[in-house]
Design a protein that fits this description.
Strand content: 5-15%
Number of domains: 3
Distance between the termini: 9 Å
Order of helices and strands: EEEHEEHHEHHHHH
Largest sheet: 4 strands, mixed
Helix content: 55-70%
Shape: elongated
Length: about 290
């Protein structure tokens, strides 16, 4: 579901800003943007998000400003390796050795967090920075969850409307199904009598065959299972636990029952109601992809 949240915290002059955007997605698709020197914070930040959200594309941006010189260090070994490599290339290919400080600072591995090697320590600056970043992410997530809850309530109302429509269509089919069965039996008997008018046949055997064909067209079991699926669906919508996958499965089963009803019955009214059922179920299947 759609959600947006921002938060910011400060520590020793450093400002941590967090922005979170979420949109609909079948699964949790998490994208984190964080400066390379603070990459050690990413694991803890992502875990906080995974603990709160189960579905949706999540774009999370963490910006850290004025972290102070104490939080940044130069990797002397990396600098030495780059300089030696530049000198070697210059000597080998007779090119100018003009590797300056600005170029060195832009090379991977030269600048890093002074606490990067001890990100888990709660007593150093890096540990405090991680704790504060996690706190800012949690605060931003609260705003996201509030927006998602409002959207979820609106979606729930719409889903209930489609469920009511499914109940109405299924109830109408249930009422007219016995009459269509009788009509089907009468038409079948009349048609067979015309086709076999010149052939002597046992009336009792004919009645048995007609009854067998009529039984194969009976949709009472499909209607009963459809009703059961709808009841389960309604109950799950009131659950506080993640039910998205269960709802999706029930909708697949509803679709299966409706397809069977349409294949068994040739009645025009049942066909019309069956098409309405399929439309409502398909709409619910689109919406349920956003339910956790």
């Amino acid at each position: 579901m759609t959600g947006y949240g921002v938060a910011s915290c400060q520590i020793d002059g450093a400002v941590i800003s967090v922005e979170i955007r979420t949109v609909n997605h079948r699964f949790l698709d998490l994208h984190t943007r964080l400066s390379r020197e603070y990459s050690y914070l990413e694991s803890a930040i992502q875990q906080v998000v995974r603990d709160c959200l189960r579905r949706g594309r999540v774009d999370l941006t963490v910006t850290i400003q004025n972290a102070g010189i104490a939080s940044v260090a130069v990797n002397a070994e990396a600098v030495k390796a780059y300089v030696e490599a530049a000198q070697k290339l210059g000597d080998q290919f007779h090119i100018e050795k003009n590797l300056d400080v600005k170029t060195l600072f832009s090379l991977p591995g030269v600048v890093q967090s002074a606490n990067e090697s001890h990100p888990g320590s709660g007593d150093d600056f890096g540990g405090k920075l991680q704790d504060l970043a996690v706190e800012a992410v949690r605060e931003a997530l609260e705003s996201v969850l509030r927006m998602r809850k409002l959207e979820g309530e609106a979606q729930r109302i719409d889903m209930l409307r489609h469920i009511d429509s499914i109940r109405e269509s299924a109830g109408h089919i249930r009422k007219i199904a016995p009459h269509t069965t009788i009509e089907y039996q009468q038409k079948l008997q009349s048609r067979l009598a015309q086709l076999l008018s010149n052939i002597e046949i046992d009336p009792q055997r004919l009645a048995q065959e007609v009854a067998l064909l009529v039984d194969k067209s009976d949709i009472s079991e499909e209607l009963a299972r459809l009703d059961s699926h709808v009841q389960q669906y309604s109950s799950l919508m009131d659950s506080d636990s993640p039910v998205g996958k269960k709802l999706d499965f029930l909708l697949q089963e509803m679709q299966r029952e409706v397809n069977t009803i349409l294949s068994k019955s040739g009645d025009l009214e049942i066909t019309r109601r069956g098409i309405v059922l399929k439309a409502d179920i398909e709409k619910l299947r689109e919406q349920v992809q956003n339910v956790e």
